[in-house]
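TICKET: design request
STATUS: open
ATTACHED STRUCTURE:
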């Protein structure tokens, strides 16, 4: 009889192992970017959905207020004075000079879970707070330049048409990570998104909304008039300068931007802008939407449609109109000058202030038909 031993087991050779490892590495190299792109597209789509929900809220606001847009300043504030300080003080005097009851309405952020009220009040002399009620502040004597109510659409005056919360997720873009981190990681160790109260303390200044209105469209169209109509005029010099235009005044609703992502979130190459030191969010101020040729903010237009629009396209259309008419699609004759909205803090050679300083305001347009 012949005995048979156990069959021999063949091991992988080094070459075979290297082949397997190479295949796995190749698959990872292919799949990871694809997963990253899918995640990026998902976040972009969610931001677009946020803007469509906000468009519905704007429609509700307009339905309740006779087609008016969201505003936080008295239409006739310029009647009371030629700058914020005197105007708000005279407003107080003409309304009875009876303490806080006679102040101009505040910028109300909401009540916390402990019952504390958070608001920027407008007692006479609080010029910094006066500026928050204006669409955007052009002069230092009127408040904090470049800031204004266009940055605060999630305050109580408007968020009641959404959910009644300042820190509602619909007001924050998923890719606005610097801002969202402040909301999720508060000094108290909780997420303000989960707080049931209308307002929640994040530490320091509020985490401003990811989306901003077009301040140009919130003024009377005469404020940012094109040069043929007299050019820019300080809103306090026009008796109706702060009168909120109605939605129906939009001449080019499919070409005039209404809201967009304030920070450079789409096609981003850098996050923190070193031009701002120390920065506003954990020592980081993100680049603004107009900081790069490659920026393509998700944008809501006055006709209600949402799309990603490119800075490069905005500059090309502006140049075309400037060549044809002698003035561009955004106003270069405001107190901000050619620098417009922080152009000198751009990442590259991008140079546009579309959406922020649209020529002719709501009667103007930020793009032209292709």
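STATUS: resolved
RESOLUTION: sequence designed for all positions
ATTACHED SEQUENCE:
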């Amino acid at each position: 009889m012949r005995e048979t031993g156990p069959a021999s087991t063949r091991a992988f050779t080094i070459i075979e192992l290297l082949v397997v490892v190479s295949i796995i590495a190749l698959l990872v190299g292919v799949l990871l970017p694809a997963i990253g792109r899918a995640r990026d597209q998902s976040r972009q789509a969610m931001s677009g959905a946020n803007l469509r929900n906000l468009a519905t809220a704007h429609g509700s606001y307009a339905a309740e207020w006779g087609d008016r847009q969201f505003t936080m300043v008295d239409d006739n504030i310029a009647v009371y004075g030629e700058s914020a300080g005197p105007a708000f003080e005279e407003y107080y005097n003409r309304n009875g000079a009876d303490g806080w009851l006679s102040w101009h309405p505040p910028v109300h952020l909401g009540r916390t879970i402990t019952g504390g009220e958070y608001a920027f009040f407008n007692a006479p002399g609080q010029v910094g707070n006066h500026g928050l009620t204006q669409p955007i502040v052009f002069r230092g004597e009127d408040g904090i330049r470049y800031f204004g109510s266009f940055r605060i659409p999630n305050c109580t005056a408007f968020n009641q048409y959404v959910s009644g919360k300042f820190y509602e997720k619909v007001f924050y873009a998923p890719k606005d990570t610097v801002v969202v981190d402040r909301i999720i990681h508060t000094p108290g160790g909780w997420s303000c998104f989960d707080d049931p109260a209308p307002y929640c303390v994040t530490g320091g200044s509020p985490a401003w909304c990811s989306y901003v209105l077009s301040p140009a469209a919130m003024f009377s169209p005469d404020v940012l008039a094109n040069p043929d109509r007299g050019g820019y005029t300080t809103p306090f010099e026009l008796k109706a300068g702060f009168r909120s235009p109605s939605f129906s005044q939009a001449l080019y609703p499919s070409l005039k931007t209404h809201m967009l992502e304030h920070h450079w979130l789409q096609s981003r190459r850098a996050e923190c802008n070193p031009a701002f030191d120390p920065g506003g969010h954990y020592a980081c101020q993100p680049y603004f939407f107009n900081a790069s040729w490659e920026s393509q903010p998700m944008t809501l237009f006055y006709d209600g449609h949402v799309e990603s629009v490119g800075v490069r396209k905005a500059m090309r259309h502006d140049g075309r109109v400037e060549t044809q008419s002698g003035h561009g699609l955004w106003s270069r004759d405001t107190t901000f000058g050619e620098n417009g909205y922080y152009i000198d803090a751009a990442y590259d050679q991008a140079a546009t202030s579309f959406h922020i300083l649209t020529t002719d305001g709501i009667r103007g347009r930020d793009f032209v038909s292709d």
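CLOSING REMARK: The chain has one domain: 19-363. The chain has six helices and six strands.
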